[in-house]
Write a structure and sequence with these properties.
Mean pLDDT: 79
Strand content: 15-25%
Structural class: alpha/beta
Radius of gyration: 16 Å
Largest sheet: 6 strands, parallel
Number of strands: 6
Number of helices: 9
Strand order of the largest sheet: 1-6-5-2-4-3
Distance between the termini: 22 Å
Order of helices and strands: EHEHEHHEHHEHHHE
Low-confidence stretches: none
Shape: globular
């Protein structure tokens, strides 16, 4: 299933989303994943998980890790496996972080490209193209944005999601 939805059509999704046990919501940093995920979880009576809540705060260091290496994957995986009801999981780099076949069965992936009519798409296509062509050096992009870009270049979640929000109104 692959659906692209604009904001005014988003309310019809609750029927589609009421069936799967697990809903993954991903998108670039600041795209509105948490806001949307909490609202969907509330409407569906699902348990809400945000990968940002599982980021391990390390000691001060000049070395900044990639986002997926900062997440306590063991703790997150354990809590996901223990939750028997519906789950809504939000975060960046989800396909890289979660490798739980049981949870992935029958799950729906949602990718958010943009939140609200007043904002442009969060993933700047020109930067992605420059990264693909080697014009831009990913080592000069600060985390977590560099992790976002690496992930998008490797997994193409904006094309491989079941549902893609090209525009999502903030009041949904």
């Amino acid at each position: 299933m692959s659906i692209t939805i604009r904001g005014e059509d988003a309310t019809c999704l609750f029927e589609i989303l009421s069936d799967p046990k697990t809903i993954f919501i991903e998108g670039h940093t600041g795209a509105g994943k948490t806001t949307v995920g909490k609202k969907i979880a509330e409407k569906l009576g699902a348990k809400f998980f945000d990968t940002d809540s599982y980021v391990v705060k390390g000691s001060a260091s000049d070395v900044i890790k990639q986002y997926e290496n900062m997440v306590d994957i063991e703790k997150l995986s354990k809590e996901l496996m223990e939750e028997k009801g519906k789950k809504v999981i939000v975060g960046i780099c989800l396909r890289k972080i979660l490798k739980l076949p049981k949870i992935l069965e029958g799950a729906i992936f949602i990718y958010i490209k943009c939140v609200s009519r007043t904002l442009d798409q969060w993933i700047e296509e020109s930067i992605l193209e420059d990264l693909r062509e080697g014009i831009e050096d990913i080592n000069y992009i600060p985390e977590p944005h560099a992790s976002d870009y690496r992930y998008i270049l490797e997994f193409n979640p904006q094309y491989n999601a079941d549902i893609v929000f090209e525009r999502l109104e903030e009041n949904i």
